[in-house]
TrEMBL record:
It comes from the Eukaryota. This is Uncharacterized protein. It comes from Effrenium voratum. One of its GO terms (molecular function) is GTPase activity. InterPro entries: P-loop_NTPase, Small_GTPase.
Length: 218
């Protein structure tokens, strides 16, 4: 039905740079990523493969150290993990701790501020699993009431067929008794990513939960 008025004029042509809603590059430009920083501590006896794990995660299998160099004190490596189907990047600060108890005073402040931990044992060294209990106890002691996400990592699975190795079942049992996720890795073959990605996603999930909690405070 006509109301007798002339039709409205067409909208003005877009000005330079506004053809796509004010963004000269249109939908080609991704929104800036949200970067979350997560500090992960690696714990476990000397020579269990912590440094190899961190280096191979950071740089791929070609980064597997050719010669053993004992870590004294701490080393820090940084690597970003994209969270699938989001614009979120979790930047992992991996704190590679030396296995010597003389360095505990250096490690303690790192433990107190860590967001996640990796408890590392070597499948070919049964003592390294029994010592994990002690590492875990020390970390919990340093943190008091503050909870932490964690995983247990069995390293050097290429040595699994050696006599006296720790079985996958033992690793699973140790982890499930403590409510921790269990992963098998082999730095020598470049199989190390899964536990790091797991912790990054867990951290993002916790961030989301915390955000909702804070929003609900109003
Ligand atoms: N066979 C085998 N050896 C490994 C593997 N990862 C580490 N190693 C060796 O274990 C030794 C200790 O490794 P390192 O990463 O320095 O242990 P860290 O003292 O816990 O940092 C080195 O001689 C490594 O070459 C692996 O996946 N397979
Ligand atoms: Mg080391």
């Amino acid at each position: 039905m006509s109301d007798g008025l002339p039709p409205p004029p067409p909208p003005p042509p877009p000005e330079d740079g506004e053809a796509f809603g004010g963004n000269p590059f249109g939908s080609l430009v991704q929104p800036a990523p949200l970067i979350l920083r997560c500090k992960v501590v690696l714990l476990g006896d000397s020579a269990t493969g912590k440094t190899s794990l961190a280096k191979v995660f950071q740089g791929g299998a070609t980064n597997f150290p050719k010669n053993y160099a004992m870590t004294l004190g701490i080393d820090t490596l940084v690597k970003r993990v994209n969270i699938p189907e989001t614009n979120v990047v979790v930047e992992l600060y991996i704190i590679d701790c030396g296995g010597f108890s003389v360095c505990q005073d250096v490690l303690r402040p790192q433990w107190e501020t860590a967001n996640a931990m990796m408890l590392v044992y070597d499948v070919a060294n049964p003592e390294s699993l029994s010592h994990l209990e002690e590492w875990y106890a020390q970390l919990k002691h340093a943190r008091g009431e503050s909870a932490i996400s964690g995983v247990v990592i069995a390293t050097k699975t290429d040595l699994m067929d050696r006599p006296g190795c720790i079985s996958v079942e033992q690793g699973h049992q140790f982890s499930s008794e403590r409510g921790l996720e269990f992963f098998e890795t082999c730095s020598a073959k470049g199989i190390v990513d899964a536990p790091f990605h797991f912790l990054a996603e867990r951290f993002y999930q916790k961030y989301g939960e915390r955000k909702v909690e804070l929003e609900n405070l109003h």
